[in-house]
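[Meeting: bench + compute handoff]

Bench side (C.D.) handed over the final construct sequence. Compute side (W.E.) agreed to return the predicted structure before the next meeting so the bench team could plan truncations. Sequence as handed over:
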Amino acid sequence: MEEPRTLADRFETQRAHLRAIAYRMLGSEGEADDAVQEAWLRLSRADAGAVDNLGGWLTTVVARICLDQLRARKGRRETPLAGEPEVATTADAFRPDAELQLADSVGIALLVVLETLAPAERIAFVLHDLFDVSFDDIAPIVGRNPAAARQLASRARRRVQGAPPGAVADHVRRQRIVDAFLAASRAGDFEALLAVLDPDVVLHADPTAVEIAASRATHGAPTIAPEVRGAQAVAAGFSGRARGAVPALLGGLPGAVWAPGGVVRTAFVFTVTDAGRIAGIDMVMDPARLRALDPVVYDARQP
């Protein structure tokens, strides 16, 4: 049995690569870190001395962990490939290093497009097009033969290349507005909050949020009104109070959540006008509504 310290050192040389793979598969820093940590736990329990290619073994393990998480998160039904011809396109000739440069330059916008893919498609695309993993190695991960794995990646590639540019641009615009709101709220910058809020902005709190706030009021916590109208009042309520909020996708759109211990307790759903201001904020704490929003926490600064 290999010495634990030596094994740990070998694992650390792979950590950054594994984290990059997991992040592009999951779109969440926290989930990526969890996947890498789970890979380490599995390695520590395995007969590492029998592993000839540690990097390949760990890549496979991380990919399978991510595939399980994507399936659990999305619950998407994957479309069978039987009878679907593989369409050759110029996108099929993209080099993996070129796709990796695309991922680094587009960043979160590419992750938005990847969110539209079925789990196996996303795994096949990320492994092959972004990290140059062969289809022979991808096939057992997604439970298909190499030809079917190639089709998965090809279909995903066509969807990525065919994504409407306007949709990605709109997502990035919305994300910047949400980021500006969170930054101003954390800093207690009242004027910056007013600048990003529509004058007639409305804040809605669901009944669960109102009830929880009322129960905590006896301990000195502020109450929450079911509805607050106007930029001045909404800005006053958020100024200096979003330090625990982090960016997230909510129903596929940029928003924010409060997730102590990695568990989403509160979601903030933003309505953004064409003029680039926030016209509505929905504070959601009802567990059923939170599940329906399918929150995906990420760090918008991640490349």
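W.E. noted at the follow-up: Strands lie at 197-205, 227-229, 245-250, 253-258, 266-272, 278-284, 296-297. C.D. will use this when planning the next construct.
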